[in-house]
Specification:
Layout lengths: L2 E5 L4 H12 L3 E8 L18 H14 L2 E6 L1 H17 L6 H20 L4 E3 L4 E5 L6 E5 L16 H4 L2 E2 L7 H10 L21 H8 L7 E4 L5 E5 L22 E6 L4 E5 L37 E4 L6 E10 L3 E4 L8 E8 L2 E5 L6 E4 L3 E11 L11 E4 L11 E2 L2 E2 L6 H4 L6 H4 L5
Parallel strand pairs: 1-2, 1-4, 2-3, 4-7, 8-11
Antiparallel strand pairs: 5-6, 8-9, 10-11, 12-19, 13-18, 14-17, 15-16, 15-18, 20-21
Length: 441
């Protein structure tokens, strides 16, 4: 039998995971992470949260009942950096974070997994509702949904790598929640009827935006709410209190329901629109992890960006009209310009010929451009709308307009796509609109 460490959170799911493995004859060690920030008040006893002193005591009681060794690991600093700071930073940048995903990737299956190795344990088991098996055809590990669809947590485990899945077990993923509670009662575990944790563990009471305001006060500043034309229609109470798709809490007196369709942190501005404005024909993804082999690129999509993030940095002085040169090194002749997400403040056009420009938006059809393989140069024109709260900040970021699979050097008029400068740029000969023009090289 194997020596397996179980991440005991103090809840019923991880407790049953430990009980099942003990029953199977494995040498089980219980590990509980002390993640509770020293600056957060300990929650009341009936608060449905984990990670506090009460949860540690519950985990210790489970280990005692099962007759297994139990250790408490102080991971407060790592949790602060990887989860709490990330959580606040994402809201401050106008994005909606999922702290459970950050905790899984940076703490449970990274820091904790390293501790497991130090204890000479072969595997780490948790109370997640998910399953892992192995594809008989490829030999790769696969992440599967739990038997209990209502409790499935596989979506927060998307970042697991093949090497991690080889060392991880999810014993409760094969059971329903009622079955798990029944098993807990059979083992006479004190947490058998303990309510599920439902709150963000480091925000046991109050509103998460209060925490963000405390640690990132710039995200709590009031600012304008504008419609899709850029006209001011209201005032928000801090971008941290909103997420794309939100309807309630806007305080707008509109005849039709309005939703948040965009959050612009650099302008401290919310953009709202009717329900139809939320619809998108495509989505830009980041931090993609292929558990199964990735699909091959479609014909003509063989350009790759160096950092995988695909963000073009326009380091420019705001003005009514700006032209920026974009350089792309491709291995095939066909390129597809996908356009820029819709923006009520700025409008983009691609130069397709002498004095010929094609408007580009996030919903327009991709523009096919036939050029020879190698280094190609394109010119973008950015026109700032006369309405809205402008002028706006420098370093405007938007998703890479070409296929986001390009691993060759790409430049804008002021530097590389990731905002850094390549060797040529550092020598002072970085490309500009004037010296690049529309030449093909």
């Amino acid at each position: 039998m194997a020596r397996i460490a179980v991440a005991l959170s103090g809840g019923v799911d991880s407790a049953v995971a430990a009980a099942l493995l003990t029953e199977q004859g494995h040498d089980v060690i219980g590990l509980t992470m002390n993640l509770w920030p020293s600056w957060v008040k300990e929650p009341e006893e009936d608060t449905r949260t984990c990670c506090g002193v009460g949860a540690i005591e519950d985990a210790r009681g489970v280990a005692r009942a099962l007759g297994i060794r139990h250790y408490v690991l102080n991971l407060r600093e790592a949790f602060q950096r990887a989860v709490i700071d990330y959580f606040c930073d994402e809201y401050a940048h106008g994005r909606t974070p999922n702290p459970c995903i950050a905790c899984n990737q940076a703490i449970k299956f990274c820091v904790l997994l390293e501790k497991v190795s130090a204890l000479d344990c072969e595997q780490l088991a948790t109370g997640h509702y998910a399953r892992i098996d192995r594809d008989p055809a490829t030999g790769r590990f696969r992440l599967l949904r739990a038997v209990d669809a209502a409790k499935d947590q596989s979506y927060v485990l998307f970042g697991l790598t093949q090497s991690q899945m080889a060392r991880v077990r999810f014993p409760v993923g094969h059971y329903t929640k009622p079955e798990i509670r029944s098993v807990a009662r059979r083992f006479r575990l004190s947490v058998a009827d303990k309510p599920d944790s439902q709150e963000i563990c480091f925000v046991p009471s109050g509103h998460y935006a209060d925490l963000v305001a405390q640690r990132r006060p710039e995200a709590a500043r009031p600012g304008p709410i504008v419609d899709q034309t850029g006209a001011v229609v209201g005032t928000h109470s801090g971008i941290a209190r909103y997420t794309v798709g939100q309807r309630r809490g806007l305080g707008l007196a509109e005849r039709e329901p309005h939703f948040v369709v965009g959050i612009y942190a650099d302008r401290n501005t919310l953009v709202v629109g009717e329900r139809s404005a939320l619809l998108r024909a495509r989505v830009v993804l980041g931090r993609v992890n292929w558990i199964v082999p990735p699909p091959p690129p479609a014909d003509g999509f063989d350009a790759r960006f160096p950092d995988g993030r695909g963000a073009v940095v326009l380091d420019r002085v705001p003005g009514p009209v700006t032209e920026v040169a974009v350089v792309v090194q491709s291995t095939r002749g066909n390129l597809f310009f996908h356009g820029i997400p819709e923006d009520p403040f700025e409008h983009y056009s691609l130069k397709t010929g002498p004095d010929q420009w094609k408007a580009i938006t996030g919903t327009s059809e991709p523009v096919a451009i036939t050029r020879g393989p190698g280094r190609n140069i394109f010119t973008l024109r950015i026109t700032t709308a006369p309405t809205g709260p402008g002028p706006f900040a420098l370093d405007r970021n938007f998703p890479n307009p070409f296929n986001p699979l390009d691993d060759h050097p790409i430049h804008t008029a002021r530097g590389r796509l990731d905002g850094s400068h390549c060797a040529g740029c550092r020598r002072g000969d970085r490309p500009t609109v004037e010296n690049l023009g529309d030449r093909e090289e």
